[in-house]
């Protein structure tokens, strides 16, 4: 056993470790341009690389440990490239067919001289059924290496490793000493920490107590008042790094000095588990932990041997439930999603209408704060299939549990707007918005006192006053409708008095007299051409025109047309030996 196998546990997993992929039969020292593939690092995932031609490589995602069906996450490097070398990389064994690669999502790339992740342009990505791969859907990336000395890294999404989290938490903890504690509530099978960050104080402030003891009513209130708690869980699945970025954004926001962060820290308690599955994240798994368990399907049957993290969280919940002065309100489980755009929530359904209505309140607050929130993608259900998820298994009584899903790809701000890819910053912003909406909610129900020093009057004063529109200020060209009408009304109704030399005159001088002498144009419906509003032209509806005459193929042509099925058969015989693809091909596994 080599040294690396013992130290990082990668060797036995089947990740490629600096493998030079060359044409069959060749050996000896690698020449420039014979690509060297490597995935033997933290969060790395690539199981196999086949040389098809010097231009084309078939790549295989390494399935999760002990869970062969989970195959989506990939993260590998390529080096020993030639200047301006062009390649096609086919990822041929993805475990899910319908993903965002179908539409706009693209993988990411970075190199040693350009360490920031960049999305590969969509025109270089092809997610298609390949006859050479038994008709299965493969992801082809066309890529040109532009610098010989660089190491190129390709990944399904910007990765967020266990080490990065540990580093971030260590720095965060130092800054947040005054109001937060960090502890390890359990150890994973591979002896990694499962961190729990507690923000806020379970005790009510002494100052508040003194103030409230003034009246009998407030005395009763103090006795009844419970400290509100929110539990946030992130990164249950290794292949969903957006979850970690969102969690980081949330933690960083709570560290800040903003009024909302202060209000949250002072009035409620947030229990945050930033990484529930450190083993899976470290190993580069898509969903499972080391033993092949999908943690978001095992909450209802967790054992201390196989799921130490889940048992620890269950213990925490029991402890919270036993305390009389504490009330757990929400469990928020943050995930990434490979099939949908934007941000949305999955919740539970209840037979009691009032209970159900209350359950739908927090998502409303989230929707008001989070950019690209997609209410149409939010579902509330009680499927038996998902009985092992956190949101189904954990809540008891009045606790509301949700799965918040953030797209691995991007979002549209309007239904038909442009597609905007998510960046690390955009994810951390979602975390910030999540914290803000929690503040909104608790302010709404009176747990967090209303913001002081901000009145409505002040708001009104700040608003820009609208300048009244004076008719003479308007130039004749200010209204696009008028401009078009004047020019487009057909003769003979075009009046002769219209200013003939309008364009020749200097604009300012011409304005007023022209407006005064401008005659009223009489609108004759028959004479008016389609109105131009903006750049779009309103035309008669195309559906009225029968297009079938233009589409129908003449019968003579049909006769001479070559038989299509014949073509198809001939094409497939070109590849006499189909390339390898994994036989276990599952398309039904859902995200979250
Ligand atoms: Zn997930």
TrEMBL record:
<dbReference type="Pfam" id="PF00246">
    <property type="entry name" value="Peptidase_M14"/>
</dbReference>
<dbReference type="GO" id="GO:0006508">
    <property type="term" value="P:proteolysis"/>
</dbReference>
<protein>
    <recommendedName>
        <fullName>Peptidase M14 domain-containing protein</fullName>
    </recommendedName>
</protein>
<dbReference type="GO" id="GO:0004181">
    <property type="term" value="F:metallocarboxypeptidase activity"/>
</dbReference>
<feature type="region of interest" description="Disordered">
    <location>
        <begin position="452"/>
        <end position="483"/>
    </location>
</feature>
<dbReference type="GO" id="GO:0008270">
    <property type="term" value="F:zinc ion binding"/>
</dbReference>
<feature type="domain" description="Peptidase M14">
    <location>
        <begin position="158"/>
        <end position="437"/>
    </location>
</feature>
<feature type="compositionally biased region" description="Basic and acidic residues">
    <location>
        <begin position="468"/>
        <end position="483"/>
    </location>
</feature>
<dbReference type="InterPro" id="IPR050821">
    <property type="entry name" value="Cytosolic_carboxypeptidase"/>
</dbReference>
<comment type="similarity">
    <text>Belongs to the peptidase M14 family.</text>
</comment>
<feature type="region of interest" description="Disordered">
    <location>
        <begin position="1"/>
        <end position="29"/>
    </location>
</feature>
<feature type="compositionally biased region" description="Basic residues">
    <location>
        <begin position="453"/>
        <end position="467"/>
    </location>
</feature>
<dbReference type="InterPro" id="IPR040626">
    <property type="entry name" value="Pepdidase_M14_N"/>
</dbReference>
<dbReference type="InterPro" id="IPR000834">
    <property type="entry name" value="Peptidase_M14"/>
</dbReference>
<dbReference type="Pfam" id="PF18027">
    <property type="entry name" value="Pepdidase_M14_N"/>
</dbReference>
